[in-house]
Structures are given as C-alpha cells and as structure tokens.
Amino acid sequence: MLIIFDLDGTLIDPAYGVIKSIDYTLEAFKLGFLDEEIKKSFIGPPICDSLKHNFNLTDKKAKEVTDFFRSIYKEKFLYEAKVYEDIPVLLQILKQSNNKLAVATYKRQDYAELILRHFNLDAYFDFIKGSDFDAKLTKTDIIKACLKEFDANDAVMIGDTLHDKKGARELNIGFIGVSWGYGFRKDEADANDVYEIIKKINIMKNNRID
C-alpha cells in the first residue's frame, strides 16, 4: 500500500517558526495585527492564499509579501518546529510492513526536503512532493504526483486539513484525518493518536479486493 502523509500539522508542528515569520512579515509591510488563532490558520494552506484572504492584497503584492515571508522563514525559522509524538515509531512500523511512504505537502519542495532531513525523517520516505515555487499546484495535484510516481491504485492520504481530505476524495483514495494538527477537532478526526492510524490502515488492507 502507498501511504501518503501531509507534513505540517501531521508529521511536524511548525507553529513557532511559521508564526514568528508571520510577525516579521506583518511588521516589515505594516500590514497590521492578527490574533494568534488567525496566524495558526496560515499553517497548511499556501501562504500566498492566506495573505490575500486576510489582507485583500493584489496578486502582485501578495507575491512580494510571500517572497519576503519565505526568505525570513528559511533564513531564521525553518527548523523551529517539532516532530509530533510517536511519529518516528509510526513510520518505522509502516515501513517494516512493506508499505511505500510518501509526503504530499503545500510546503515548498526544497523546504520540505530540508525539514525532513533535519528531523531525521527523510529516510522513511520513498518520495517527497512539495509545492512548486509559484505555489500554483493544488493539494490534489501534489497527491496525484505521488500516485503517479508509484503507479498506485491502493493508497491512503493522512492529513490534518480539509485540503488533504478534498484531495484524497477527488482522487478516489482513502483518507485518515488526524486530530493533533490544525484542521480537525478530536470528534471530527479519524485518528487521535498514531496507533489509531495503524488500526485504520490494517482495516483498509483487510477490506481491499486484490
């Protein structure tokens, strides 16, 4: 089975670094104040979309602000994140069970690779697909690239937001929503810890038609 993971809010919690980068950006462009909950909503979706939505920026201005944010984030705060509890254990178990593992993230490709390497998670993954530099790919596009890489029909997407769920549904693959990220409450999620993910995947495998 191909198991595809989202990155931010699923494998790692990037909140501190992202929020500090937002603060730098708001100050640099005199964009005003955002409360902490709105700042957290920037985690996951393309940063350019979040900026346009919250500040009514033109495409040109949003790109300028996004480029600044990315520069600050990479230079100062890229590694200001933490791996969620028991994620390495989960990845090891799934890998030992002969699954293929991939990452599908809105994070830019080079950032995703750097972060996974920094936290010693990269070795678990057979394929990493991030966003393009212009952030034009949808989450469906990114997940689809993972499926194409393995010519996979038997796959599941694991993520923490509606973007992840929508992409999985559009591509007709399984989806497991996790509660520890930034999209689903515990009563909305499919898994509240990594061991529930393992149970869900085992059920999917047992129910599949070969």
TrEMBL record:
Keyword list, A-Z: Hydrolase
Residue stretches spanning the membrane: none
Gene3D superfamilies per UniProt: HAD superfamily/HAD-like (3.40.50.1000), Putative phosphatase, domain 2 (1.10.150.240)
Record-linked SUPFAM superfamilies: HAD-like
InterPro entries with a match to the protein in the record: HAD-like_hydrolase_sf, HAD-like_sf, HAD-SF_hydro_IA, HAD_2, HAD_sf, PGP-like_dom2
Classification via Pfam families: HAD_2
Species lineage: Bacteria, Pseudomonadati, Campylobacterota, Epsilonproteobacteria, Campylobacterales
A Gene Ontology term for the protein's cellular component: cytosol
One term of GO molecular function: protein tyrosine kinase activity
Protein's recorded name: HAD-superfamily hydrolase
EC code(s) of this entry: 3.1.3.5, 3.8.1.-
